[in-house]
Design brief:
The chain has about 500 residues and is mainly β. Helices cover about 5% and strands about 45% of the residues.
Length: about 500
């Protein structure tokens, strides 16, 4: 007999998670209104093989003139026009290329008052575009984008964020070999497509990134807390999660997840009950991937650094759930283990060093070690205990591109922590016992909030002409730096009903 165990590995919990996922995909009412046509000229800084270069991007789309609380606001088709100079093309595509195709993803910020969300406008497709001999190459990416639903009245603002696009060069059809006398000519070989090239772009500073404003009317659809909930009684429920809901991308027809993790569990991080539990045989691990972002406090500075910026091409964490499942018949506990690859994009943080010096720096979390994750709960009565998930790995912290009071400070390329940071995060789901802790639930299969504290070691390798290690160690290193990460709803790669998908949700980081 073969077992297919998800991230939680518990049949009763899995049933609840399935219901939640199905409910999330049920169609809501769609707000139909006359559209407002939008055209915006934007400037981006793109990283090409020849170096960073600013390019002009034209955004064309349509948005409803108005919306209704609780009903989906559906933008029209989006078109992104990119102009690439010949100086860039020479290093970007092979010289014998005649045309290109490709796809693009625009990260859009959606806000209403203080509520924010991130929408990934993915799989915008470019048709075959002929490369001109001397003029700039103008490529247009177009496609449908997901709807947005807000639960209350007030203007909804759409803003442009990070852009990434991929170009696949196409070479001319190669002539067929000359046919022998009397034989029919062989058909020409089909056009050859070279390896696609991916380019990442960030928005240039000092420009208005607003794409559209949609006024929303109607009564709030947020639930009103009951007296018992506000009093924090047994039936208390946490405040609703992000008020803005972004639907899955309608054009997500391919799997964007990286290859499945190949690392192994770190058994030293797993529980070791006595006597040893029974290991469920013949498991079928389930691959999935998800976005996760958040903040880490730097205790000495009294500041919080953004981790995996959702507006700047965030990294995707890839997971393989159910690689090991154990049943502890002595104590009635079940444990489901997961291995993962944590991917975190570098981000810029700004703070006051020593309380008075404005300082900004890029921070890169180096994640070379696999994630070891285990979720524990009960498979015997009593069942009303939380599902606790623990994630553990070692990471390094590198600092570069430092500016002090606006003046660059050359710290070199090897400024990093002197030893790995032991990262441990935990999330809890107590829905089956009434959500008594008031903290948003977390499970791998649905996402949620993860919490932890880390000790930041001393720094080494900082500075090219002088030793800057003591400065960074004095300003940053120390114990008890709190971390809060939010995992979005994942993409299930092996879901037969949805064989390909982009990660479902890019969550809003929370402090």
């Amino acid at each position: 007999m073969r077992w297919a165990i998800g991230g939680r590995g518990i049949a009763r919990i899995a049933a609840l998670g399935l219901c939640a996922l199905v409910a999330g995909f049920l169609p809501m009412g769609v707000s139909h209104a006359k559209d407002q046509q939008v055209k915006a000229e934007l400037s981006y800084l793109c990283q090409f093989p020849s170096g960073a270069q600013r390019i002009d991007v034209e955004f064309i789309g349509s948005f409803p003139e108005s919306g209704v609380a609780g009903q989906a606001i559906q933008p029209g088709e989006v078109t992104i026009g990119i102009s690439l100079p010949q100086t860039v093309l020479g290093r970007l595509v092979p010289l014998d290329s005649d045309a290109v195709t490709g796809s693009a993803t625009l990260t859009a910020g959606v806000s209403q008052g203080t509520d924010q969300a991130v929408a990934a406008w993915a799989d915008l497709a470019a048709e075959r575009t002929v490369i001109p001999e001397s003029d700039d190459l103008a490529v247009e990416f177009a496609g449908q984008v997901p709807s947005v639903t807000v639960p209350a009245a007030g203007p909804v603002v759409f803003r442009a964020g990070a852009l990434a696009f991929e170009l696949a060069p196409i070479r001319s059809a190669t002539p067929s070999p000359t046919a022998s006398h009397g034989a029919p000519p062989a058909p020409p070989a089909p056009p050859a497509a070279a390896e696609p090239v991916r380019v990442k772009c960030s928005v240039a500073v000092e420009q208005d990134l607003t794409l559209a404003r949609v006024p929303v009317s109607g009564e709030s659809t947020l639930p009103v807390p009951s007296p018992s909930a506000t009093a924090g009684g047994k039936n208390a429920r946490p405040a609703p999660r992000d008020a803005i809901r972004v639907a899955p991308s309608p054009s997500a027809t391919r799997t964007d997840c990286p290859p499945s993790p190949t690392g192994s569990l770190d058994v030293s991080r797993l529980p070791h009950p006595s006597p040893p539990p029974f290991e469920v045989p013949d498991l079928v691990p389930q691959p999935l991937c998800a976005y996760a972002d958040g903040y880490t406090n730097v205790k000495k500075l009294g500041e919080a650094a953004l981790v995996n910026d959702p507006y700047d091409d965030p990294g995707i964490t890839n997971l393989l759930t159910g690689v090991r499942v154990t049943l502890d018949y002595t104590h009635g506990n079940i444990e489901a283990d997961t291995v993962g690859d944590l991917k975190v994009a570098p981000g810029r943080s700004t703070f006051l060093a020593f309380g008075f010096m404005p300082t900004s720096a890029k921070m890169q979390f180096i994640t070379d070690e696999p994630l070891t994750i285990y979720s524990t709960s009960r498979f015997q009565e009593p069942f009303d205990v939380p599902v606790v998930t623990t994630l553990g790995t070692h990471i390094g912290l590198r600092i570069y591109d430092v500016k002090v009071n606006g003046v660059p400070l050359d710290v070199g390329s090897k400024c990093r922590t002197s030893k790995p940071i032991d990262l441990v995060l935990r999330g809890t789901s107590d829905a089956q016992s009434g959500d008594v802790d008031g903290i948003p639930d977390y499970e791998i299969d649905t996402g949620g909030a993860l919490f932890g504290k880390v000790d930041i070691p001393s720094f080494t390798g900082c500075g090219t002409g002088s030793d800057l290690d003591p400065i960074f160690t004095s300003a940053i290193s120390g114990p008890d730096n709190e971390i809060k990460m939010i995992q979005g709803a994942p993409c299930f790669i092996g879901n037969p009903d949805k064989p390909g998908c982009s990660p479902i949700e890019v969550p809003k980081p929370q402090r």
